[in-house]
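User: I want to check something. If I give you two sequences, will you return the structure for each one separately, not as a complex?

Assistant: Yes, each is folded on its own. Here is the first sequence with its structure:
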Amino acid sequence: MRRVLRHLALAVLLGCLAALPAPRLACRSNVAHAQRLANVQIHYYMPQASEVFLVWGINGWETVPVRLRPHGTVLKGKVLHTPMSLRDDAFVIDLQVPPGAMINYGFLVTKAHTGQDVKEWDRGLGVGYQAIAVDGLGIEAQTKITLELVTQEIRYEAPKAGEVVLVWGISDWAVMPEQQRPEGTEIRNGVMHTPMARDADSFVVRIQIFSGTTIDYGFLITSTGDGEPVRVWDGQKDYHAIVSREGSTIEVDSDLMLADAQLSASTVSASLVTEEISQQLPDAAEVFLVWGINGWGLVDEEQRPSGTVIKNRVMHTPMAQEGDAFVAKVQIPAGATIDYGFLVTKTRDEQAVQIWNSDEVYHIVAREGDSIVQDGNMETEGDVGQAEQTTVPAEAIAAAGDAPLPAQAPPPSNASNTGLLVLLLGASVLLVLGIVAAAAQRRRR
């Protein structure tokens, strides 16, 4: 009998002890799973650049989970764009991806060493670079492109105009460094304004710029041939051109009917339009319109809606809540392109967040009486996304912040399981001791 009881007690004890290590084994398994990633470092040598993005994906340009994306990574056209760090003479980025995955990548040069904004792609042989992910892999790539400074001439034919100003920017209306702007250039509403020189019936300006750069532009007629001051905007066509080679000329024939009625002072007062922007966000309690014009430029202070603040050179305007929608009204020049997105800063349950809403950064040409309505969805993964044909500047992304990941529920606690096992073990021991005591009493009788 004693032997049976001893065996029974030992079996209960071993069973309980065997159950205890299970959570620890699970933890070890999780750690091992987290370690099954390949660390890959990419070096890109481009001495003419001061800013480069790695454009990448895996297994046919698929995105990786948010937790594996390096700091500063954004989605553009559903492709990952990650800023590279300049270390010594190379741009460097560290990636963590599943081992054996195919890394698809290319390089986007966005700023020359002079500080000028550019947009030059290095796709290798045209289809993009590729590499199989192996832990500890180091990739070194020499640039396949050259940034060549060329002179671009822009010629605008407007025989009835007296003065014309080129309103322009590069790579989605960005401003060039001051030392590279043509003489007389001024910055108004965050956009470059350069006076054009008259040449017979045309107006001409020459710009030094890197080949491959996109020029965005329009024309502002500021006086008639009689010297009468006016403001007539010719930019409805969304003019833009890619600079290709030295000596090329962009020629535009004005199709404006410059009748006396149009070339009057009344065009000045009619140059501003009001845009109403509405976003449906039933789960939000506080939303900001993050916006700019003609490539995220600022409007004059007196035109900004009440409460507008500048964060990292981008305007943030609080939106008024109307039911499930948030509404803002802005005044901007007629024909200007308004660039905008939505930043959710508080949810309906009063939780403070920083969520850049939607997969797009919107843009639209301003016309009087427009009402823009968007259906919203709150992307709680925190991706800062954007439309394929629109560029949101780094300043806007920085202003929105790296939208934090939603608070994740902690993993199931092992504490309750452990406590239960301890209670079970204690009860089993007491049961066995009771049986032993009862057997001893019967023996004494």
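And separately, the second sequence with its own structure:
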Amino acid sequence: MRLNRENTLIENNLYPFAGLKDEDVKKKFVSALEPHQEIIDQIQSAMFLHNIPLFSVILSIIVGFWILCLVLYRILPKPVFMIILIPLFHLLYCFDLHKFVKKFFGKLPELSENDPCKLWTIEQIVDLVHKPALLIWRIGFFIYRTFLCPNPVDTIVFILATIVLGFLGSRFNFVIIAGIKLILFFCAPAILTKTPAGPFLKGLLNKQKPKQE
């Protein structure tokens, strides 16, 4: 069924959610994430430091996997590293790491609506991330479509994009950049709500608003 849907998109030269309004795209993301609400809430609880053991476990996994990728990136040819990168993620699931993490799930906090450390609803999360998520999905679909049903335009764009990324990859270490961004993303809620960084940034934004108006 999934392949039939994707093949239909390819035949019609369309991308996922093509032609849908922004609100309809959000609804589809929300419906896809709702079955995983418990996991999403538990991860948020860790990110806001309501569950410090879970925060420590997840952060340790992220840092450990990042270090492993850095080592492999240095000792393996880059094409080989790129080929095994996704299977490396799969190994985390194959070794039941998700079950180990679930052992640290705890009771979710009950906080007021005005509390900066309250958990976000799925709707709020989707409202923030649906556009970059859709862009990443469409890029992945573009790669899939290029290999499955090549045409001159897609193939030329893919080749040029690969050359540019390869050139940038020889100048910058994307593994280091991606790892730092992921760690900062995971720690950002705690940094913004538990340290002076949050009020400081909020003050800066409030100062800039009158200037923009």
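Because they were folded independently, the notes below concern the second chain alone. Residues 1 and 7 are 10 Å apart (CA to CA). The mean pLDDT is 85.
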